[in-house]
Amino acid sequence: MGVPGFYRWAVRKVPNLRLNTSNPPYEFDNLYLDFNGVVHGCLDDWSVQEHEDFLFQLIEAQLVLLISIVRPRVLLFVAIDGVAPRAKMNQQRSRRFRAARDKEDAADTLDGALNTFDRNAITPGTPFMVRLGERLRNWAKVNASRPELCGVTVVISCDREPGEGEHKIMDVIRRHPEHTHCLMSNDADLVFLGLVSSSEHVYLLRTKPNYEKRARADSEAVPDPPVGAVVDEGVENGGFAVNEATAAAEAAAAAVAGAEDYEMLSIVALRRWLAGQFPDCDERRLAHDFVAMCCLAGNDFLPHMAAVDIYGGGLDKLITAYRSLKPAEDGYLTSEDLSLVLPRWRLLLEHVAKEEAEVLLDTVGLGLGPRQAAYHGPGPPTDEWDGLSVVVAGVSIRASASDVQASMSKHDHGVRSVHRIHGQSRGHVSWLARFESPEAAVDTLVSARRTWGQRVTLTWAEPEKLELEGEKLEVLEAVDWRSAMGAAIRESFEFWLGPVNLPKDAYLRRHVRSRKDRFVPIRVFTAFKRMRSWMQDCGEIAKFLRDSALIEVEGEGADAAVRGVQDNSVRDGELPDQVARQYDAVACVLAGDYVKSVTMLRQEYYVRYAGPAGADSPPAGDLAATERYRSRAFLSGIEWVLRYYVKGCSSWSWFYPAHYPPLCASLVQETFSPLERPPLHAPWPPELQLMAVLPPQSSRLLPELIQPLLQDPASVVSDFYPREFEVDLKEGDKDWQAIVLLPFVEEARIRKALADFGDAFVTSPVKAACAFRAEDSTSSVSSWDFEYGGDLPPSRACRDASGVPVQMAEAALAASERKHVESSGGKGKGKGKGKRDGKGKGRWQADRAVGSADAGAVRPGQDLPNVAAEGLADLQPARGFGEDSRDCRCAIA
Question: Known PANTHER family for this protein (predicted)?
Fold first, then answer.
């Protein structure tokens, strides 16, 4: 899953990140399939769920389709998730328990009746995963000798080999950085893994965001064949189409059609974009810092901090804060050995604390809310206003006079007449409404109104200055409107500062807490829409409010301030010490001490976000110890994640022992002492992981002997498997971001429960990845245990569909960006005007190559740009593309 929201942020932020995939096949040395996502996708199309063989046929067909889009020339690596590190199991556990409960809730629906397959079976160690691994190995053995895969090493890593699929993949990429790599996965994790890899040629193939909806629509339009019907021979054989005469045509058509649902991401482009943001930084160290910072936004191993919300611009603010640290001059956030440089993190977290202070104040009902746009209206009425005439603007052109009069006549307001004003703007017109009394006119001006379901704008008017349509306007005698306005103003302020509104009005509560005497400047109220035009004259407002028995006024003119005679800002249940801390927190924000402001409110945070905790956690009532425990665990988690991404798993037993993150200000306090590195330990057996992540509803996926441990309420570990649990939506977050508050499993207790079975229960052994290869279509398929540190054939100058080597397209991109750095836009240097003339010509050609070659759009035979060809002699292929090019296509039935 990775970092929620990161993919959308990256696509919008990074130029050339998404490449064109409309003209497959694309050649790469190595193609890697993070296969659990493929299996889940096929489950959406599996309607006849009583017949598992049909699901396996769908999986094999999808495998063939992916090979037809991206053609490997050295290695095809199919990676199924094995046992995950303990840090990942917590997330897996939450998702599986939530899925089991949702399935129970949907049992009486049509979808529940049709979807009988337990998706929790896609977990290492289940019988289903054993059968899937065996099926894939058979597929590889049969198809490795097909012309499309001759000479390609096909590796199947099943669930019996420890490690997540993407990290098995990275073990290969780290050892062969000279190859071109294409990874197929929808997890944002792969973006970070590719970013910190040592290879310069990493691309990510993923389904487009709207693919799932379209796929389901297609599956509804085309029914599945009935069970027992004759299916295509190519699929039935679990491989490529057997009919060689039509194989190439079928493959090309299917690949092009299938490619429409996929997109290619260039990790090179992200790496170049980061380097462009920080041109003086070392690219490798910069990538490490970026990945470590993104941990604050949450991932599969750490909860996200509210102050770094990607959907709210949190990552952009984080990058801005990082820029202020001047990493190239003053040092990076991470060291060469991937440890956190805590003094540098202290500075970064102090920047984040500014945002966090506002988040916490909002949590306790003291948020400022969204910033209001500046007022551009006519302001308060002048002595020229007759007290009866109001302009109604923004009315639909289809509205009639009776519609306008009806909308203005609410609350028994008498409307004397309405008149359409000449002219219109974008389908809207304005009307003049004339009221019977000044009270009706004033009340209309301070209220919201709608005409034809659309909100309209109301302003006072001088009728003689308006150009009206129709008959001549009757002249009305001006009336005294000031007493009516004074009454409306007093009524509004008495409501705003009264017991009904103030306790729930976070904006006003914030300003009440800004001063110990509770006085609020009148200018604060200009943000309220109800009387915005009147509020432009604070001095006049203050005069009217002095007649109120419920409001006290201090000061004169623009400096006037008001407060309620009674303090109505305290909410039910708020204690005096909480109110005192709120005053102190707001005062610290006004003084610029954001870390101290957060510290003032940390007690409310850690009480509100307690939740279940790990066995070694401090007692729930010891807030200071809980704060320190979570903070040190979170900082250690950032180190663990970075090492996991860059080098592999540094500890199989480490995990973050809480459901909620600490505060950034709490992290600041823990940057003064070094962190301890967790021990490595060993991966868990598959059965132990199943015990850790499966809900009791899925206990049948376990060996029959140990199923009662999950089902029996008297089991010694029954507290790990609740059927009822709380789901925290975190005050309105998306449903998929909800936190499932489950108890943390304890490894020692589970092992002891399994040990009670003695020799009757034996865990499954580790099974190495299996490799298959046939040198040509006539030779037999050899197989062996794949070694990650073993040698692979050399890179084969792979090219895209237009015949442009991938390395050349990347070099053209890099050369173009160097040109952009060296020269500014507009007129070129020296002779010639602009970048198309004189010395600017080479840059223009390079730009064209970047936009086309890197997106697979350069036409065969087109010359590469001169600037891209400079210094690229070493990248030229050793032989012509016609020699041993393996120009073959996967045939899809």
Answer: 5'-3' EXORIBONUCLEASE 2, 5'->3' EXORIBONUCLEASE
Q: Show which of 564, 589, 608 is a domain's final residue.
A: 564
pLDDT at 164 (0 to 100): 96
Burial 567-588 (b: 16+ CB within 10 A, else e): ebbbeeeeeeeeeebbbbbbbb
For residue 621, the model assigns a pLDDT of 87
Residues 400 and 469 in one domain: yes
- Which residue is associated with the tokens 């003032």? 600
In terms of residues, how long is the chain?
893
pLDDT score at 852: 36
- Pick from 547, 564, 581: which residue ends a domain? 564
pLDDT at 805: 52
Would you say 676 and 651 are in contact if contact means Cβ atoms under 8 Å apart? no
Same domain, 509 and 452: no
Alpha-carbon span 59 to 56, nearest angstrom: 5
pLDDT score recorded for residue 182: 95
Query: Do the domain assignments include residue 438?
Result: yes
Q: Distance between CA 293 and CA 288 in Å, rounded?
A: 9
- At residue 512, the pLDDT reads 96
Q: Is residue 509 part of a domain?
A: yes
Pairing relationship of beta strands 202-207 and 70-79 according to DSSP bridges:
unpaired
How many domains is the chain partitioned into structurally? 3
Residue listed under structure tokens 């190859």: 179
CATH number at residue 473: 3.30.70.330
- Contact of 339 with 639, CB cutoff 8 Å: yes
Q: Are 676 and 636 in contact (CB under 8 A)?
A: yes
Q: What's this model's pTM, rounded to 2 decimal places?
A: 0.82
Extract the tokens encoding 126.
Answer: 């289940």
- The residue type found at 618 is P
Helix (H, G, I), strand (E, B) or coil at 536: helix
177 within a domain of the structure (yes/no):
no
Check: CB of residue 175 under 8 Å from CB of residue 781.
Answer: no
* Domain span holding position 396: 389-479
Nearest Cα to 631, choosing from 674, 592, 663, 675?
663
The reply to whether 437 falls in a domain is yes
Ranges of residues in the chain with a pLDDT under 50 are 211-247, 808, 824-893
Dist. CA 864–CA 843, nearest whole Å: 12
- Reference 783, options 169, 153, 29, 159; nearest CA is 153
